[in-house]
Amino acid sequence: MKQAGYIIIILILAISGFLFYKFRHSAPEIIQTPLEAREEAWGVFQKYLIAAKNHDQKTLSSTLYRTSPTCENSASTTDCFKRMDEAYKEGSSLKKLDFTNILNDSRQTILTTEYKIEETDLVKAKVRSLIYFVRSGRDLKLITFEQNSATFTMKRDTDQNTMARLDFITRDTDSDTLDNEIETCAYVGAPTTCIKTDPTNRDTDGNGLWDPIDNLIKDLSLSK
Ligand SMILES: [Ca+2]
Ligand SMILES: [Ca+2]
Ligand SMILES: [Ca+2]
């Protein structure tokens, strides 16, 4: 009986030790519903906008995945403040409830508005706004945002044909926010250096970051 008692104590100690080790060494995965993800992302975005409005570089940096090179150089403070003012002006016109498309997992969040149609005499466009975030450690950081990002086509013989063309070029099979034409470098004027990604896979290289997030981060590292 005494022996059985020892075994039970050893077992309890072993299980407690294992659980303690697991708790200490595995960062809990962040699991959010899309609405929770939007709340968190919007909080970061608002903090960023207020910092931009107040020219508060320290807070601004804490909300960003990477600060603009213009704002890292003290010689270009005037340009940096100008950028902040422009960012505030653009960003503050965006409304949380318009961002009804929420793409999120533990590594990233992308907020997108519904498309709206705009046209001039010559072209018809689908316009939407997008905000991209990536998680660094436990903190969600803003990568960038695009206000009124437009995809357009020249008007065709009939409005139906124009609309069909517009719908075709904005097809996004894997819903990663990069249109198929962008992912396949098939759009007019695609540079020869255009990096192709898989239009049927959000994470072409399997590193856990979706294709648009990878592209944006790559662009930022090249902007130095
Ligand atoms: Ca896509
Ligand atoms: Ca893709
Ligand atoms: Ca990836």
How does this structure look, described?
With about 220 residues, the protein is α+β, with helices and mostly antiparallel strands. It has one domain. It has helices at about 1-25, 35-55, 55-65, 70, 75-90, 160-170, 180-185, 210-220, and strands spanning about 100-105, 110, 115-120, 125-135, 140-155. Helix 2 packs antiparallel against helix 3 (about 55-65) and helix 2 crosses helix 5 (about 75-90). The longest helix has 24 residues, at about 1-25. The structure holds calcium ion (3 copies). One calcium ion binds near residues 183, 197, 202, 204 and 211.
Brief digest:
The chain is α+β, with helices and mostly antiparallel strands and 224 residues long. It has eight helices and five strands.
The rough form would be described as globular
> Which oligomeric form is depicted?
single chain
Tally the beta strands. 5
Helix segment tally: 8
What fraction of the residues are assigned to beta strands by DSSP? 15-25%
Separation of termini? 71 Å
Helix content bin: 40-55%
SSE run: HHHHHEEEEEHHH
Structural class: alpha+beta
How many domain regions?
Answer: 1
Mean pLDDT: 90
Largest sheet: 5 strands, antiparallel
Give the low-pLDDT segments. Answer: none
Distinct compounds present: calcium ion
Radius of gyration, taken over Cα atoms and rounded to an integer in Å? 23 Å
